[in-house]
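Hi all, long-time lurker, first post. I run a small reading group and we've been trying to get comfortable going from sequence to structure in the token notation. Rather than ask abstract questions, I figured I'd post a concrete chain and ask someone more experienced to write out its structure so we can walk through it together at our next meeting. Sequence below, copied exactly:
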Amino acid sequence: MYVLGLLKNQSAVHIADMARECGVSERTVYRDISSLLRLGFVIQYRDGYKLTPDADLPQNTLDGSDIALVNYCLRLNHLSSH
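-- Answer (accepted) --
Happy to help. Here is the structure in token form:
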């Protein structure tokens, strides 16, 4: 959820920066991004990773409670105030 918040709230973010911010290895961040892609999120790379601006939550793979949890976590992410 934290990686998703970073991707949503920054124009572009690098793997090393996400790893440092989350306190995990770069490999973990790559796995997290891979998981988000499998869930249907559209993530692109242009001088850093970012969630596409017009991307909605992938409704076809998440049920209502999953979507509510993702929305809740994104609202709580401290980066959303930047």
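A couple of things your group might point at:
Residues 19 and 28 are 8 Å apart (CA to CA).
The first strand starts at residue 43 and ends at 45.
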